[in-house]
Amino acid sequence: PVASLLTHSAGLPNWTSGTLAPEFEAGSRWQYSGEGYVLLQAVLAAVSGQDFESFMTRSVFEPLGMRHTHLRWSEALRPLFVPGTSRFGGASQFDFVEPNAAASLYTTADDYATLMAALLADAALLSRTLERPVSADAELGLSWGRGWGIEDAAGGPYLWQWGNNPGFRAFAIVSASTGKGYVLLTNSERGMPLAAPLARTTIPAEHGVFRFHMLG
């Protein structure tokens, strides 16, 4: 089901080198799967009759005024692009020549904040995002809704998302109740530790998300 793909509970692996097949019953538990979102990308393209980037541009990016957001690399992005930095200090760049729903978002902090604000402003969409989440780490108060991580903490619930590509780390979080949050985009594989202190100054709370095993 689409809901299990959105909540990373379809049982699919993450970037497997073997045959893509479920490893457990859909909906029974959480397991991150980039392939699940690539499958959703294929479904949207088939239903809409458009390639994925065209669909997202016409349906989301243009209506929201996200002028600097794209799903594939082009030289037109070069003036805005900052090269990445590997964990050992060398330059790193990962150019997606084809859209990838799980990994290839090129954007700015302002554009991504616009997307988050639009989600919070749409009561029906926000409700659907939060309904029937799948537990990701109960001890840390983390679950996964339809497309977003959910953290149960004071001032929340919080919606959050992260990015981990060669040379880059990113993190975004916003309170669904107060609208406070931030977007952090870094051009370093050592950038994620900046997220927790930034949260302490913008959305003070005991945020279990920063101890989540997949953030690094």
Could you explain the architecture of this structure?
The chain has 216 residues and is of the alpha+beta class. Helices cover 27% and strands 17% of the residues. It contains 6 helices and 8 strands; from the N terminus they run αααββααββββββα. The strands form 2 sheets. Strands 3-4-5-6-7-8 form a 6-stranded antiparallel β-sheet, sandwiched between helices. A two-stranded antiparallel ribbon has the order 1-2. A hairpin with a 6-residue loop joins strand 5 and strand 6. The longest helix has 15 residues, at 34-48. The chain is globular. The mean pLDDT is 95.
Lay out the secondary structure:
Elements: H1 2-6, H2 34-48, H3 52-61, E1 84-85, E2 91-92, H4 109-121, H5 123-130, E3 134-137, E4 142-144, E5 149-151, E6 158-165, E7 168-175, E8 181-186, H6 195-202
Antiparallel strand pairs: 1-2, 3-4, 4-5, 5-6, 6-7, 7-8
The percentage of residues in β strands lies in: 15-25%
**How can the largest sheet be summarized?**
6 strands, antiparallel
Number of helices: 6
Cα-to-Cα separation, first versus last residue? 30 Å
The coarse silhouette is globular
Kindly report the spatial arrangement of strands forming the biggest sheet. Answer: 3-4-5-6-7-8
Helix content estimate: 25-40%
- Topology, number of strands: 8
- Please give the radius of gyration in angstroms: 17 Å
Q: Which structural category fits the helices and strands?
A: alpha+beta
The helix/strand series, from N terminus to C terminus, equals HHHEEHHEEEEEEH
Mean pLDDT: 95
Poorly predicted residue ranges: none
